[in-house]
From TrEMBL:
The keyword Nucleotide-binding does not apply. Keywords: Sigma factor, Transcription, Transcription regulation. The lineage of its organism: Bacteria, Bacillati, Bacillota, Bacilli, Bacillales. Residues 25-92 form the RNA polymerase sigma-70 region domain. Residues 123-173 form the RNA polymerase sigma factor 70 region 4 type domain. It comes from Paenibacillus gansuensis. This is Sigma-70 family RNA polymerase sigma factor.
């Protein structure tokens, strides 16, 4: 469902219509879940962050500008929620001096259609190895097709930084892919 089809439902949800919000939730949940899952590996954390995204969306509808794409606004909420979660997780680690934070649970996909071919699976595993700052740029650029300028705006960083991270991510992916014996050029 595209943004234009969602607009009447968004307007109703903005005025507090819970059934309209439920419709928006159903129309966007799979996209939100997959985006968070690309950025966070622990399944329980994914569920918690997705719930937080929708709570923040409900509280923030009044800030949505219907002249801008809804999914762009929604992906901005997702990125900020993941960043908040990462910041809170880091604080917990420091406060409780836990070392277990650094070991992530193995991620299990619930949507098998996302990664159908071995090549996609291999590339995804390489993307997962990137640092968060590089990974989020790759996910927003290639999974959601945002321009680097839009990514910079969403992440609240200079465009040059977004371009630099994009370049470093591709360079790192090429290097890692070559180490696995891959013969496909990542561009």
């Amino acid at each position: 469902m595209n943004d234009k089809e969602l607009l009447p439902w968004l307007e109703k949800a903005t005025s507090g219509d819970e059934s309209a919000f439920q419709f928006v939730y159903q129309a966007t949940h799979q996209d939100v879940y997959r985006t968070v899952a690309f950025l966070v590996y622990n399944k329980q954390d994914i569920e918690d962050i997705v719930n937080e995204v929708y709570m923040r969306m409900w509280r923030s509808f009044h800030t949505y500008d219907p002249n801008r794409p809804f999914r762009y606004w929604l992906h901005g909420i997702i990125v900020r929620q993941v960043q908040d979660w990462k910041r809170k997780a880091w604080r917990r680690v420091r406060l409780f001096e836990r070392k277990r934070q650094m070991t992530c649970e193995q991620f299990e996909w619930t949507d098998k259609a996302v990664l159908q071919s071995e090549m996609q699976h291999e590339l995804f595993s390489l993307v997962r190895q990137l640092s968060y700052k590089l990974r989020v740029v790759v996910i927003l650029r290639y999974f959601h097709d945002y321009a680097l300028e839009e990514i910079a705006d969403m992440l609240q960083i200079p465009v040059g930084t977004a371009k630099s991270r994009h370049h470093m991510a591709l360079k790192e992916l090429r290097k890692r892919f070559a180490l696995t014996g891959g013969d496909v050029y990542v561009h």
